[in-house]
């Protein structure tokens, strides 16, 4: 998204003035996180980089087959991102760990996908309701409601949603579905969790996964970094991570602990209370999300606690 710096500050000033002159009731923000949704715990120390999760995801979501097959490990030579044709990717990192016996560098592997945030910024940014947080934990996309504004893409702190630019007639926003259909129709876990040969991915209720993560931390002193990534980041996510390597060395972003939707939603409520025009609302929300995006990139100083 292109937004000139001066234009952004003008928009921010308008937003601030609106917020100041708005009744307190219109500024109230409440979490919409489901009480005890499902999620996945990814234990990075167990991942061997086999890419079977990528393959299972590709099959269950009927995505196009990749140019390089799933057993081609040369893909690890570059860092990849999920896109419109792949909802999850595994990346390889070298954090400096060395195998004691062989004296060789040890690789670590990190699977990334939509985090299915508890209070998702993409949902707040979507004024048509095409993105929604379901009670089962999945952040669901409804193509029939999507107008293609792509604000969800700008708002996402993990830069996950992708757009089908190659599909000019019926383009959709694409991202991990948490295999919602498998869960709701067949009571089955996500395909990636089922296929994983090392049980690096555990599916379950988020509260149970948090307990499991903390038990592993407690029972294995020295094995893990003392941090469950996703427990609190951006208000919490449905995908949680344990790691034996500092998260900062594995490409994890240092993010605020408070949910990011607060500001955009507060402004939406304020603007609607004064019946501002949808066109201006679009522009202003774009400015807010651009600012959020820049803040994350610059690693805002208010962020409590480093990613360890
Ligand atoms: S990771 Fe991004 S796309 Fe996924 S739920 Fe969170 S904000 Fe939305
Ligand atoms: S939960 Fe389903 S859609 Fe998401 S990464 Fe796993 S297999 Fe893919
Ligand atoms: S299937 Fe499991 S072990 Fe293999 S790359 Fe995926 S998460 Fe890692």
Number of helices: 10
| Helix proportion | 25-40%
Specify Rg, calculated over alpha carbons: 20 Å
Main structural class: alpha+beta
Poorly predicted residue ranges: 1-26, 271-277, 296-306
**SS elements, strand count:** 9
Series of H and E elements: HHEHEEHEEHEEHHEHEHH
Structural account:
There is one protein chain. This protein is α+β, with helices and mostly antiparallel strands. It has ten helices and nine strands. β4 (131-133) and β5 (139-141) form a beta hairpin. α9 runs antiparallel to α10. It is globular, with a radius of gyration of 20 Å. The model is unreliable at 1-26, 271-277 and 296-306 (pLDDT under 50). The protein binds iron/sulfur cluster (SF4) (3 copies). One iron/sulfur cluster binds next to α3 and β3.
List the helices and strands and how they pair.
Elements lengths: L4 H16 L3 H4 L10 E6 L8 H9 L28 E10 L6 E8 L8 H5 L5 E3 L5 E3 L9 H5 L6 E2 L9 E2 L5 H7 L4 H5 L5 E5 H14 L19 E4 L19 H12 L4 H21 L10
Parallel strand pairs: 1-9
Antiparallel strand pairs: 1-8, 2-3, 4-5, 6-7
Helix pairs in contact: 1-10, 9-10
The site of one iron/sulfur cluster has 15 residues, from helix 3 and strand 3.
């Amino acid at each position: 998204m292109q937004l000139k710096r001066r234009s952004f500050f003008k928009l921010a000033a308008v937003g601030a003035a609106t917020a100041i002159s708005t009744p307190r009731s219109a500024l109230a923000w409440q979490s919409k996180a489901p009480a005890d949704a499902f999620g996945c715990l990814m234990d990075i120390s167990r991942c061997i980089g086999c890419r079977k999760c990528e393959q299972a995801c590709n099959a269950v979501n009927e995505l196009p087959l990749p140019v390089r097959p799933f057993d081609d490990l040369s893909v690890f030579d570059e860092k990849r991102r999920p896109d419109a044709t792949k909802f999850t990717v595994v990346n390889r990192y070298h954090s400096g760990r060395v195998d004691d016996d062989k004296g060789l560098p040890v690789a670590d592997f990190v699977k990334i996908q939509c985090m299915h945030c508890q209070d998702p910024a993409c949902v707040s940014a979507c004024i048509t309701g095409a993105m929604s947080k379901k009670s089962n934990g999945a952040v669901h996309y409804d193509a029939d409601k999507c107008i293609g504004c792509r604000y969800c893409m700008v708002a996402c702190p993990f830069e996950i949603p992708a757009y089908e630019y190659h599909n000019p007639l019926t383009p959709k926003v694409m991202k991990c579905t948490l295999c919602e259909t498998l869960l709701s129709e067949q009571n089955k876990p996500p395909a990636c969790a089922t296929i994983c040969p090392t049980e690096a991915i555990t599916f379950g209720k988020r509260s149970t996964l948090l307990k499991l993560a903390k038990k592993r931390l407690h029972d294995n002193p020295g094995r893990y970094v003392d941090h469950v990534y996703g427990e609190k980041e951006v208000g919490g996510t449905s995908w949680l991570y344990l790691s034996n390597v500092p998260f900062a060395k594995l490409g994890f972003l240092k993010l605020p602990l408070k949910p990011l939707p607060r500001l955009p939603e507060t402004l939406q409520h304020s603007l609607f209370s004064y019946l501002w025009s949808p066109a201006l609302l679009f522009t202003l929300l774009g400015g807010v999300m651009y600012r959020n995006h820049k803040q994350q990139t610059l690693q805002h100083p208010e962020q409590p606690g480093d990613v360890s």
